[in-house]
Amino acid sequence: MVGEPPAAEPVARLRLSPLFDAEFYAAALAARGLALDGLDPVNHYLQRGEAARVAPHPLFDPAYYAERNRDVVAAGVNLLHHYLDNGYREGRDPHPLVDLKLLRSQLAADFSGDPLTAYLLSRGPGLRPHKHVDPDYIAAQQRRLDPRDERPALLFYLASDPDAINPSAEFDGAGYRLLYADARDINPLIHFVRYGEAMGRRATKDRGAIGRAAAQIEKAAALDPDIVKPFVDFRTTPLMNGYDLARREFRLYRLLAKATGRHAHAHVILTPWLKRGGADRAVLHLARGLLESDPDLRVLIVCTQDDCVEALDWAPVSQRLSIAKIAHEVDDVGDTYVAFCNFLRFAGCRHLYLVNSLFGWDLTEKYGHVLKTLMRLYGFAFCQDYDDSGRRAGYAWTRLGRGIDHLAAVVSDNSRTMSEFAADHAFDRDDLAKLFVLPLPVDARLDGAAAEAVRDNLLRGERRRRQVFWAGRFTAQKALDVAAEAARRAPEIDFHAYGGAASETSATETGNFRIGGAFSDFADLPLHEASLFLHTARWEGLPNVLLEAGGVGIPIVARDVGGIGDLVDETTGWPVPREAGAEGFVAAIRAALARPEEALTRAQRMRERIATRHSNAAFAAALAKLTTSP
Amino acid sequence: MSDVTVIVNLHREGRIAVAALRSAAAAIATAPQLACEILVVIDRGDEATTRAVARFGGPARVEATDFGDPALARNFGVERATGACVAFLDGDDLMGESWLGVAAKSLREREGRDVVVHPRLNYVFGRDAAPLVWTHPDMETDALDMSLMRAGNFWTSATFARADLHCRFPFRANRIEAGLGHEDWSFNFATVRAGVTHIAPEGTIHFVRRKESGGRLAQSEAKRILPNLAI
User: Which domain range does residue A477 map to?
Assistant: First the structure.
């Protein structure tokens, strides 16, 4: 990007500023494959360099400054000028290794200028620019290389090979890089300060211990050629603290122990997260059911993939429910699996539930042969899932086949998809005996909530247009496009889609196809306006939204996929064949609306089915059977 | 009766066992104040390993066992040891020259207490891997959260302790078929729980060979073993 030629005054200011180093700037440009192109360095910086985040000085990092000061970027002002005018006064650090507050604390009480400039004008070790930069330690190395070098220690350090020069006795750059591959292309201390420290990583300390053992190492090397290879200096061997609290398995265990307060938790549920999806709802139903089954037991929900717990307001309020968020502390190396297994053992876990948790399925595959002797494992599989190419992608396909030997039960909320899984994996009699249907409960307060309004809309709505509701996530799976096409083909009917914003779908609004936005609770929808509920998903388990629509008393037209057939059949609604297009849905919708009495009858049967199968009592009974059956 | 029995546990290490035995002999020579013996326990060994022991040529008692379990082979070694103290050495590892002298002194300084001594440094090496040194923690000098022993093992099996302590805390048999093993972790866990202090004095080092695919540890990892801890 080429900016306007800058005014003379800003150019002159930078030319005089200790924070513009023309030589350094030219080298930084070259390192990025850029050139001055005949421009004066200051002009180049102002016109092009800063926009490309090329540093004008070793201790002013425009990328860092921009990242930390979005307001300055938004204001569109020059970053270096901003720092020189206001930034230093406002404590906006110009570089990851420059702590203005720390510097200022070492200056005279009445000092009011830029602490960084003061640092740059200092000579020798003197000021400490950052807690991880020990000026005396660096200066000792500096003097060894060139006794006349009086640059401030940090400038010397940043200009040196970080594998050879360390910033303090507490930080070994080469060791840090060896330990953490992601730090190989960046100064290791900067990486540690910006990322590693927050991740709980520990810097490797001085390697004096190796030096003290040098004689013994040499003698052992004389006994075995692999101990010190020829021409290798073993003093560069990285040194790690065996008891390092940054060890991932330690961090994981501490997180879990903190979450559980070291109480016994007989039931542990592994879930990727607690968002507002169907599986998340199932997790919370499960937790609620277990807590209600026994006033003494505790339940732990472990989020293994994402810390999001936004659905916690659906969770039962109980001191006996614990939540652990371990997404950042698990990996597939092995030690974290062992630590997690040990946690389960010491936490007194007797029932382990896997609900869409990849970590959980992997744990089962790897350690299920041991865990199953210590506790019961349940694998939940609600429906098939597919990738963008149409290949099956859900854990029911990718993990269930190898995990079932370790499971006490394979649990689904419907019987139809269970049959598909059995066929997919050629389950034998023993496997089939493990399949367990656990219908999830529906919110009892919804029962019949819209029945009277729907009756009115259907029976006395000749003078009004019929309103068809659609609700779900705006994803390819849910096929909102089919609903939009149905609306186009049925101009006499209004369609309302809830679950997202218009910007989230390629389906465009028309006169009879409206997008109603996101909702967090089905009861918040304008249910009193509904005549019919439409469900178009291409694949499914048994979606909660159908239980809710059926529960409130709205007649349902739904594609017969996955577990939907358990709920919607010719007696309780209008099932549409799996392969049907929009015209099939339109035909079913018109058929239902043309026979309002029949629609109401089927809706009533649906309510009865839901009340019977999906009550809290039925759920509690099924859950008790699941956890106690042999 | 000797002061120290160095128990060298062998399985199918073959020629590399010579380096282990020579390192034990060197450590013994560096501690002339101690009366030491080397006891070689070959558990389900092969001919190459037996020949390697013969090739070593130094003074050593050799016992062959058929446990197929390093935990039971270690317990057997303790039974047969004449030393008041025992030092374990895996047949593919090497002990540092100062190990026996410093460890024995450390125990003497803590007479009357239950103490297990570990080398401070573990120099991990291998044919195809760059070496790495990691430190053992010390319960006397390091602030440790001992509950983390449930999450990870703190110390290897290269220990120096009184033989009677090992009689009171024998290694738990591995149950590989049940998925339970890691006898060193189990031993450390049980002893810490019983109040035993584990120390790692400065100036001590062990050389731990990175296990190759045929090693027992590698087999354990392949079989996904959990530590056989008394919960």
Answer: 445-614
Q: Is the CB of A227 less than 8 angstroms away from the CB of B152?
A: no
Answer whether residue A388 is part of any domain. yes
Q: In the listed set A33, A52, A83, which residue is the last one of a domain according to the structure?
A: A83
Candidates B132, B203, B207; nearest CB to A227: B207
Nearest residue in chain A measured CA to CA from B203: A213
Nearest to B227 by CA among B159, B170, B153, B168: B153
The number of folded domains in chain B is: 1
| Tokens at B142, concatenated | 């390091």
pLDDT in tens, A527-556: 999 999 999 999 999 999 999 999 999 999
Residue in chain A nearest B204 by alpha carbon? A213
Q: A478-513: per-residue pLDDT in tens?
A: 999 999 999 999 999 999 999 999 999 999 999 999
Contacts of A216 in chain B (CB under 8 A): 96-98, 205
Q: Which of A49, A65, A83 is the last residue of a domain?
A: A83
Q: Which residues contact A544 (CB under 8 A, 6 or more apart)?
A: A278, A281, A440, A442
State how far the Cα of A527 lies from the Cα of A496, in Å rounded to an integer: 11
Closest Cβ opposite residue A370 in set B135, B179, B209: B179
Could you tell me the CA-to-CA distances from A21 to A24, A45, A591 in Å, in that order?
Answer: 5, 11, 79
Rounded Cα distance, A60 and A56, in Å: 7
List CB contacts (< 8 A) between A373 and chain B.
178-179
Distance from CA of B64 to the nearest CA of A (A): 25
Cβ separation of B125 and A226 shorter than 8 Å?
Answer: yes
Q: Give the chain A residue whose CA is nearest to the CA of B176.
A: A370
Do A588 and A477 have their domain in common?
Answer: yes
